[in-house]
Sequence to fold (272 residues):
Amino acid sequence: MNAPTPHLRGDYAAAAADFTLPQHHALIPEADHQTWRALMRRQAALLPRHAAQAYRDGLAKLRCEDGVPDLGQASEALRGTGWRLVGVPGLIPEEAFFAHLAARRFPVTVWIRRPEELDYLEEPDIFHDFAGHVPLLTNPAFADFLQAYGRLGAFATGHGALKPLARLYWHMVEFGLIAEEGGLRAYGAGILSSRTETIHSTTDATPLRLRFDPARVLRSDYRIDDLQPTYFVIRDYAELFHVVDALPDLLLRARDAQPIPPGAREPGDQLI
Ligand SMILES: [Fe+2]
Fold:
């Protein structure tokens, strides 16, 4: 969700003013489908133990294990929550990103990583955007939260509070954990599109796992180049939606407060 920079590999010249472009699903080479299947197979082995139930249910609805999914067809599977997938060349400017979310359109990068990049990629590709984010869009509470997040974009822009708003996305959309009956599970897309982070976030002893507290999240800086040292844990997805009304005020307070470094402890933190 940062502004595109020249090193990005997507075809930004082919995109419309809202940064969308057609996926041309029929033209996707077989090698890309193979890469998709390889990525899906690796993650599938980890999901029963590490992924949230809502994520697994959503993934099953999407039926996307056989190859790079068709964004139009997959949008049909999201009819229940009214979301639609749109193709984009990659990262897009914040303003466009917020506008899509506010209209229940989820931007999905149309290209996939190279076979030698199965483990790590700097930019989000279709595996991250689709396999990571789209399953949760079948969950009504999470789907409503994400739209509300998009609507807050204009407020945050107008009040100099984009940084705390980005922290909310990072911690609760990309790297969120949920406490389920069987234990801690991951639902965040940044976790579930990375084998290493899937295991690290849910089972390693090293990271801090803190009970979700929106004021704390909005002040918490994060790592962009390494595994997260701090994760926040929700009880259910409704909890995210329920804080939406309080967010404008909390964003302003976080804007004016000292940021909390990644991995630091604060008085009042509730360890999970
Ligand atoms: Fe993402």
